[in-house]
Amino acid sequence: MDGHKRIAVSRRFFVLTVAIAAFYVPLALNYTWPLFAPGLSRWQDAVNTAINGDGYALGDGSVESVRHGAYAEHRMVLIVHTTLAGIALALGLFQFSARVRARWPAAHRWIGRSYLALMSVSMLTALVFLYLTPPAQHFIGPAFETQLRALAIGTLGSGWYAVYAIRRRDVVTHQAWMIYGIALMMTAPLLRVIWIGIQPLIPQHDLLTNIGVGSVILGVAAPGSAVFAFMLTQQPTPAAGVRCAPRWTYGAALLLAIAGSLTYTALVLGLPAPIPHSLALFHLVPAWLTLAVAVRGMVRARAAGDTARERQWRWLMWGFAAAPTAASLYAQIVPPAFTTADAVLAGGMDGPVIPITVAFALVVHAAARSQRHTDDDLDEPNVLAVA
Ligand code: HEM
C-alpha cells in the first residue's frame, strides 16, 4: 500500500473508531444513573429495546436479569468505573490527532496524564468489582470474567508501558502501546455494538450468549485492530541485512492455523447444550480473516522487495496463525474449578490475545530499534555535514 493510500485508510479507520466511541460514551455515562434515581431511564437499554424488543434487552438471559443485584449493591464502584472509563476513552482518542500533538504539545501531555489517571482508577475499580461479585449466572459467566480481568490488566499495563517508553523518548513504542490500550478500551463499545446489532441475525441467542459471541470475536479482533492500526501508521525504515523468509515457512504457518482450527472446532463441538456450537465460527472467522490480511501484506511486501515490511507481516502472520492453537491450549490451563465449557470459552476469549500480542510486541520492538538507529545515524556529525 503506498503512503497516500495508507493515510486514507488509517483516517477512515480512525473516523469509524471515533463514531463508535461517540455513540457509546453517553450511554456508558448514563448507565448507572437509574441505580441512584430509579425513575431515570437507561439509554443503553432503551436503544437495545427499540431495536430488539424488551424480551431480549431486559428479559431472561439479559445482563439486567443476572446482574441487577450486583450492580445495585456495588453501584458506587460501578459508577466510578463507567464514568471514568467513558471520559478516559473520549480523552484517549484526542491523543491520536497529529494536529494536537504538533500545535499544542502541552495539551497532548495534559490529556495524556488525565487519560492515564482516569483509565487507571477505572480499571482498578473494574478489578474491585470483579473481586467483590461472583461471575454472572450464565454459561458464559466464568469465561467472560477471565476476559474482563485480562482486559483490565492489559489496559493498565499497556498505558503505563507507553508512558515509560515516552520518558525514554521512544516515540514508536509509546504510540504503539497507546494504540494497543485504546484498542482494549474500545472492546467496551464494540461489545455493545455486537450484542445489540447481532441479535436480528441470530435471534435464537439470548443477550448473554451474544456477549459470549462478542467476547470470542474480540479475542482476535481487539489485539488485531491494534496490529492493523499500528501497521497503517508506521512505515519501517529499510533495514540492511533483513531477508525474506524461505517460502516453506509460510506453509508451516498455514499448517499451524489449520491444526489449531480443527482442534478448537473439535473442542467446541464436544460442548453440551445449551452452548451453541456455532461459537467456534466466531473465533475461526476473525482468526482466518486477520491471517489473510497479514498474508496479503507479506506477499505484497515481498513482491515489492521491501524486506523490512515483509518481516513485520511475517511475524504478524505467525501471531494470527497461532491464534486457534493458543485458544485450544489456553482451554487446558484454566483453574481446576472451571467446567470444560468454561475452559473452552475462556480459550476462545483469551487464548488468541497471547500470540497476537507477542507478534505485535516483536514488530514494535524491531521498529523502535531501527528508528533509534536512524536517529543515531542522523546525529553523527559527518551525516549532518552531508545533509
Ligand atoms: C477495557 C477495559 C474495561 C474493563 C476491564 C471493564 C470492566 C468492566 C466490568 C468488570 C464490568 C462489570 C461487568 C459484570 O461483571 O457484570 C463493566 C461494566 C461496564 N463497563 Fe466496563 N470495562 C472496561 C472498559 C469500559 C469502557 C471503556 C467503558 C465506557 C466507555 C465501560 C463501561 C461499562 C459499563 C457502562 C458497564 C455496565 C454494564 C453494561 O454495560 O451492561 N467499560 N466493565
Computed structural class: mainly alpha
**Element string (H = helix, E = strand):** HHHHHHHHHHHHHHHHHHH
Strand content: under 5%
Helix percentage range: over 70%
Uncertain ranges:
382-387
**What's the gyration radius in Å?**
22 Å
Largest sheet: none
Q: How many distinct helices?
A: 19
What count of domains describes the coordinates?
A: 1
What sort of overall outline do the alpha carbons produce when their principal axes are compared?
globular
Mean pLDDT level: 93
Span between termini: 29 Å
Q: How many β-strand stretches?
A: 0
Spell out which ligands are present.
protoporphyrin IX containing FE
Question: Can you characterise this structure?
Answer:
- The chain has 387 residues and is mainly α.
- The chain has one domain.
- Helices cover 79% and strands 0% of the residues.
- It has 19 helices and no strands.
- It has helices spanning 3-30, 33-36, 43-52, 54-58, 63-73, 75-94, 98-103, 105-132, 141-167, 171-185, 187-197, 207-233, 248-269, 279-303, 307-321, 323-330, 340-350, 353-379, 381-386.
- Helix 8 (105-132) runs antiparallel to helix 9 and helix 9 (141-167) runs parallel beside helix 17 (340-350).
- The longest helix has 28 residues, at 3-30.
- The two termini are 29 Å apart.
- Protoporphyrin IX containing FE is lined by residues 24-25, 28, 31, 44, 63, 67, 81-82, 85-86, 89, 123, 126, 129-130, 136, 148, 151-152, 155, 184-185, 187-188.
